[in-house]
Amino acid sequence: MNNFTLRAVSGLIYVLLIAFFSLYSPLTLIIGFALLFALCFWELQKILDFDNIWYVVAVLAVSAYLFGTYAYRFYHGQSYEPFSLVALMPSLLFFMLVYVIFKRPDEIAYDTSKLIFMVIYLGLPFALMFRFIFPSDVVGFEKLNPLFLIFALIWFSDTFAYITGSLIGKTTFTKISKNKTLEGLAGGLISVVLLGIFIEYYLKNIHGNWIVISILIGIFAPLGDLAESKIKRLFGVKDSGNLIPGHGGFLDRLDSFLMVSVVVYTYYTIFEL
Known about the structure:
The structure is a single chain. By secondary structure, the chain is an all-alpha fold. The chain has one domain (3-270). The chain has helices at 3-23, 26-48, 53-75, 89-103, 111-128, 146-168, 182-202, 210-234, 250-270. Helix 4 (89-103) crosses helix 5. The model has no long low-confidence stretch (mean pLDDT 87). The chain has 9 helices and no strands.
């Protein structure tokens, strides 16, 4: 089985797993994404290689509190705060961290900074995803919901960027990952926007403008991938794990989601969707 087929098959299985978690019931959504968080947490703490185990415990405690708080509000259908600077604080923290990853990566060298990094980079996105979904969205497989569609768009972006880059990719644009090309980036963006147009005009009663969301995903999903690549390069790691054939670990597969989750949260918060 060649690498593309392996990536496609494992990616399809991954999407089906996400479909079950995000569509079956509110409880499976919470349990399923708690499991995904735990797997990513395990991989990331191995990459960062803490000197003191108690920092790892502290990260887990804070992240679990964030996840549990947002999951509780989601499960009980509680509304979220209207647009304000306070509501945007998680977004501001995350994008400050993204700046650190790309411009000042040496800051992530000590256990204290690793603790803060893990909470913001991993804990926040998994908590914030509950902002753009409601219990009434999760009623079984007869109805798609925003969370599943976001994962489908990310998968489209990743798959078609890989196909386009493999076929016609020539122009590299970053030293972080030499396999990334402008042609692949354009292919992923075009494909995801086309799917976004389809969702917007043919799938009704799904809150949000899906053309806007698809453009955001087409831009920021590759940035999420690059951010994780930068982290792995900083700590001398090739893959976060080996549980997903063709992709590496769960963190390698969810790196785009971490970025997209915060971006879509910001969009939903600003426009009070």
